[in-house]
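Problem 12. The chain below contains 128 residues. Write out its predicted structure in token notation.
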Amino acid sequence: MSRRLWLLATVLAALPVVTVTGCASTSPPPPPESRAGRPDRGAKLIAQYGCGSCHTVPGVDRAGGLVGPPLTRFGARSYIAGELPNNADNLRRWITDPQAVEPGTAMPNLGVSAIDAQDIAAYLYTLD
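Solution.
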């Protein structure tokens, strides 16, 4: 082995090994989907239920709230409320009864019906 290669191998062997951890997982979660629902109605319901008083929701009038997280690019997210995999069933569950999912969460139970939650979910999944 040449002196240069030996020196390079020695330097590389002396470098610390860095392990990167964080939000990455070994396999990406499946993309969110909404098997049913009317996104156009969902946008109107977001305004009607007052979601914009806490959340910023693109495409919804007067939805610039700063209390809850912005719902921009919601369809590209991996998790709902930081703990549920982002899929249509979990999103409808979260929208209809957030306290059952995460007791004590700041997200109030607004009495959203199952069909309204389905349409709201359909709209949120257009935001990717």
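Discussion. The longest strand covers residues 79-80. Students who got a different answer should revisit the alignment rule from Section 12.3.
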